[in-house]
Amino acid sequence: MLDWTRRAACLDLDPELFFPISVEGPSRSQVEQAKRVCGRCPVRRPCLEYALDTRQAYGVWGGTDPAQRRELSLATPPRETVPARSLRGGR
Ligand code: SF4
């Protein structure tokens, strides 16, 4: 279990609320309900970062649905990576 998940507002809720069948039609209200829970969650930021880092394609994470995360991924430059030369101890 990731440390931040222990403080999640959704910890004791039904996980199915955060993984609706669809984000359209009748499931839309379920998505909005899940997002409202995220809105009062103290670990919203690490949750969203985790979802982006691990490319979570389904569900509501950090107050976002999959389409919103795709947009964020496209708008956010990749994190700075350590040059391969440094990983091998080269100069
Ligand atoms: S931000 Fe939402 S999905 Fe993430 S831990 Fe909090 S309540 Fe759960």
UniProtKB/TrEMBL annotation:
Protein localization: Cytoplasm
Annotated stretches, region: Disordered: 69-91
UniProt record, GO biological process: cell redox homeostasis; negative regulation of DNA-templated transcription
UniProt-annotated binding residues for [4Fe-4S] cluster: C10, C38, C41, C47
Cofactor dependence: [4Fe-4S] cluster
One matching Pfam family: Whib
PTM remark: Upon Fe-S cluster removal intramolecular disulfide bonds are formed. The Fe-S cluster can be nitrosylated by nitric oxide (NO).
Limits of the 4Fe-4S Wbl-type domain: 9-71
Protein keywords: 4Fe-4S, Cytoplasm, Disulfide bond, DNA-binding, Iron, Iron-sulfur, Metal-binding, Transcription, Transcription regulation
MF terms (GO), sorted A to Z: 4 iron, 4 sulfur cluster binding; dinitrosyl-iron complex binding; DNA binding; metal ion binding; protein-disulfide reductase [NAD(P)H] activity
Protein origin, superkingdom: Bacteria
Family according to the record: Belongs to the WhiB family.
Function, in words: Acts as a transcriptional regulator. Probably redox-responsive. The apo- but not holo-form probably binds DNA.
Listed name of the protein: Transcriptional regulator WhiB
